[in-house]
Design a protein that fits this description.
With 798 residues, the protein is of the alpha+beta class. It folds into 4 domains: 62 residues; 240 residues, Delta-Endotoxin, domain 1 (Up-down Bundle); 174 residues, Pesticidal crystal protein, central domain (Vitelline Membrane Outer Layer Protein I, subunit A); 162 residues, Galactose-binding domain-like (Jelly Rolls, Sandwich), CATH 2.60.120.260. The chain is 29% helix and 22% strand. It has 14 helices and 26 strands. Strands 1, 15, 16, 17, 19, 20, 21, 22, 23, 24 and 26 form an 11-stranded mixed sheet that branches. Helix 3 packs across helix 5, helix 5 packs across helix 8 and helix 7 runs antiparallel to helix 8. The C terminus is likely disordered. InterPro entries: Galactose-bd-like_sf, Pest_crys_dom-III, Pest_crys_dom_I, Pest_crys_N_sf, Pest_cryst_cen_dom_sf, Pest_cryst_dom_II. One of its GO terms (molecular function) is toxin activity. Pfam families: Endotoxin_C, Endotoxin_M, Endotoxin_N. This is Crystaline entomocidal protoxin.
């Protein structure tokens, strides 16, 4: 009977999904709790089964007890030496990362909605996740653990109750918005609901979620409330009228970053909010990063630093990168129409180095018994600096001996590798002499490494399974696998980032892919001269970052500059934290190319650059067989400490015609080397959106860097914007036009919402930090003329 139990529950789960998939949103809660119970039944069965299997079999035993000061995984099997237990840096509340990844993907889906009204269903799913996963508690716990700072009971309770109240009120607002759109309520009710929620959200952000002394603890919650506030300000702009002329402002901000000048319109309030929220989040993130760095110089301090960088990237910075998309002027949003935005995150996140640790973490690769020279600085200096985007094609792994004392070749280990990338570049790490073992590097969503040690003095990786999204697995093994002998201990360790709906990613549910892998010493010294005492790190990019630059008709396609196919005399520099990745700096006579692929039908495009420049710069932009000399206005007085308002948008004169070529080149023809390019945008010509493109030609960030972001709108004809974009609600707007959204959003709502957050990320390597940047070895094949700037406190988590 017990064997039939999981089959029965899985069948019931499928039945419930099928039964409820056509039902309205009101039944989603029933579905969520039903599926939740069934999932728990399956987990209970799996637990009972694992306990039964492990009663007498040491080789498959589950490690259940570790010292109280260790965040340990409880799902790693080990060999028959119980003293050789490793631990993995698992967050007790790392389910929050899965929740936030799910939230991020839902926000991206919202940006792909065909209209402002079509996003109601996505926003309802977002609200459902925030409320159901208790985001306030989860994220507070995560940050509290990272920065070793507690939140008093009263403030914690206030955070929880306020988040619950906010999501309840916002969900009611969405229902009012839907009723207004479908003609089931009058405009006065809608406007009253919008104003009440807008003021509530602004007050909460300015007064509670930015409390002095608690900024970092509340930062992930701040960013979620900020996104809701930006969405409601956007609604006020696109549904504007005499009764939605300007917001009411009365509160006093807790911090100077959130000080708001009076706004003459909701559009101005929206642009101001995007600016100050972006700057506040990135500033607080960097403040926390500095605090973590100043704790000490040990290997453990680096792991904590790296954990902070990774987790705050996922929970804060990734969301900040989508703030600008709520601007109706920049991205052509109207009541009846908006172009979906295809955006890509180019940052790289690094999981912990794969290296052996003992049970309590007191000894291991970052604290070896022999000649411990591993420090924060030695690890950090091994992390590669910013580079152009990498897409793995193949990995060549080189194996050499690893030993101690009288037997220098007692075992073998991975001691170097060459990554061959999609664009033809090759990156070298460690020792690369001898015959390599080649494996496919494409579309890897998880890596299970076998790590070993000799007397906790020598360390290495003796095997690795690379799991591909195709369902296949590529394997690396040393000749004598697994390593054995006196003083040899080994065990598996798994590197990945959670899926959207699962604690451990699968081929059908993953959020990140392996972008680079590197053998590093991290400061470990060889016990035997000529050998390499080392660990292996893995860098991951978000699945939104695609190998090809595919331009989709009727979409705004945004391509990060770091996806260049060729560059010369350029420097890749760290992004400020708000850009979703790094930047390409054009030195004098610098050039980089972007190669694109166009999907049918044939559509012509306008090109827009997002950039920052100190003083005016002359560039030549070549596409469709013609050169387009352009002058970029100055946007800032310095490229150091770039803030949101220091970036500008430049609309390139001319039309990109796909039939005339698929290459875009940008060349700096001036002597000014202080120009950085963030993104290149392809905006379709001949669509409704382009009526406003010329109007936004002056929509650049302030040329006087001391001015506020509000100035950007001064040259824009607000009245004309309303006439061009949005027919007045009395005449041109058909209230029942989007009636199908009353129930149609059901199919886009995440049916398995419970699985998104109710997970146990046992195998998630919690301190697998963003610490990516490690110096390339001298044989690293740099592209011509390009240098990479490295400094940890400038590095945007990659």
């Amino acid at each position: 009977m017990i064997r039939l139990y999981p089959i029965f529950t899985k069948i019931m789960r499928l039945f419930v999904e099928r039964l409820l998939q056509e039902y309205t949103a009101e039944l989603r809660i029933l579905k969520v709790y039903t599926l939740h119970i069934l999932d728990r039944c399956i987990k209970i069965y799996d637990y009972i089964r694992s306990e039964k299997m492990n009663s007498y079999q040491n080789e498959n035993e589950i490690v259940n007890v570790v010292p109280s000061n260790v965040n340990a995984s409880n799902t790693y099997p080990f060999t028959n030496n119980p003293s050789a237990i490793m631990f993995d840096e698992i967050s007790p509340s790392s389910i929050g990362l899965g929740t936030l990844l799910s939230l991020f993907l839902d926000y991206k889906s919202l940006l792909g909605s065909p209209s402002i009204t079509g996003g109601i269903g996505f926003l309802q799913s977002i609200i459902g996740i925030i409320a159901g996963a208790n985001v306030a508690t989860v994220t507070i716990d995560d940050v509290q653990r990272l920065i070793n700072q507690s939140l008093d009971t009263y403030t914690r309770q206030q955070a929880e109750s306020r988040m619950n109240s906010i999501t309840n009120d916002y969900n009611q607002y969405l229902l009012n918005l839907r009723d207004y759109i479908n003609g089931r309520t009058d405009r006065n009710n809608f406007v009253q609901s919008l104003r009440m929620n807008e003021q509530r959200l602004r007050n909460e952000l300015d007064s509670f979620f930015s409390l002095r002394g608690r900024e970092l603890l509340l930062l992930p919650n701040f960013v979620q409330v900020a996104l809701l506030h930006l969405a409601i300000l956007r609604d006020a702009v696109v549904h504007g009228g005499p009764d939605l002329e300007r917001p009411f402002v009365s509160e006093t901000a807790q911090t100077s970053f959130l000080t708001r000048p009076p706004s003459s319109s909701f559009q101005e309030a929206l642009s101001t909010s995007i600016r100050i929220y972006s700057n506040y989040c990135t500033q607080e993130y960097h403040n926390g990063l500095t605090q973590m760095r100043n704790r000490g110089n040990s290997g453990r301090d680096w792991l904590n630093f790296n954990a902070y960088r990774r987790e705050l990237t996922l929970s804060v910075l990734d969301f900040v990168s989508i703030f600008p998309f709520f601007d109706p002027i920049l991205y052509h949003i109207t009541r009846n129409f908006s172009l979906p935005i295809n955006s890509q995150l180019s940052r790289v996140i690094y999981t912990n180095p794969a290296g052996f640790l003992n049970a309590n973490g007191s000894e291991g690769w970052y604290a070896p018994r022999h000649n411990n020279t591993v420090t924060f600085s030695s690890i950090e200096s091994n992390i590669p600096g910013p580079t152009t985007s990498r897409f793995l094609q193949n990995i060549d792994i080189f194996t050499n001996g690893l030993g101690v004392g009288a037997n220098p070749n007692r075992t073998q280990s991975w001691q170097g590798n060459i990554n061959s990338n999609f664009n033809g570049t090759r990156d070298h790490f460690g020792l690369t002499n001898g015959q390599p073992r080649g494996i496919s590097g494409q579309n890897i969503f998880r890596v299970i490494s076998t790590v070993h040690t000799l007397d906790l003095r020598s360390f290495g990786v003796s095997g690795a399974d690379f799991l591909h999204t195709t369902g296949q697995t590529s394997q690396y093994r040393v000749p004598q696998f697994p390593p054995s002998g006196i003083g040899v201990h080994h065990g598996p360790i798994s590197q990945f980032l959670p899926g959207k709906r699962s604690n451990i990613p699968t081929a059908n549910d993953y959020t990140h892919l392996l972008s680079r892998v590197a053998n590093i010493t991290a400061g470990l010294q060889p016990v035997v001269q000529g050998q390499r005492n080392s660990v292996v790190i893995h860098g991951w990019t978000h699945r939104s970052l695609t190998r090809e630059n595919i331009i989709v008709p009727n979409n705004i396609t945004q391509i990060p500059a770091v996806k260049t196919s060729f560059y010369s005399n350029c420097t890749v520099v760290s992004g400020p934290g708000s850009t979703g990745g790094d930047l390409v700096k054009l030195n004098a006579n610098g050039r980089f190319d972007i190669q694109v692929q166009f999907q049918p039908p044939q559509t012509n495009y306008r090109i827009r650059l997002r950039y920052a420049a100190v003083s005016t710069s002359s560039i030549n932009i070549t596409f469709s067989g013609a050169a387009h000399p352009s002058t970029l206005p100055s946007t800032t007085s310095s490229l150091n400490n770039l803030q949101y308002e220091h970036f500008g948008y430049f609309n390139v004169v001319g039309t990109f015609i796909p039939s005339l070529g698929n290459m875009l080149s940008i060349i700096n023809i001036s002597s000014n080397s202080n120009v950085v390019i963030d993104k290149i945008e392809f905006i379709p010509v001949g669509t409704f959106a382009n009526h406003s493109l010329e109007a936004t030609q002056e929509y650049n960030y302030p040329k006087n860097t001391n001015s506020t972001y509000n100035q950007i709108y001064n040259n824009y004809d607000q009245k004309n914007m309303e006439n061009t974009y949005q027919p007045t609600y009395d005449n041109g707007y058909e209230q029942n036009h989007y009636n199908y959204y009353d129930s149609g959003y059901n199919d886009t709502y995440n049916q398995n919402i419970v699985n998104t957050y109710d997970q146990e990320y046992n195998n998630y390597n919690q301190n697998s930090n963003d610490m990516y940047n490690q110096k390339y070895t001298s044989n690293y094949n740099q592209n011509s003329g390009c240098t990479c700037k490295q400094c940890y406190n400038e590095n945007y988590p990659k």
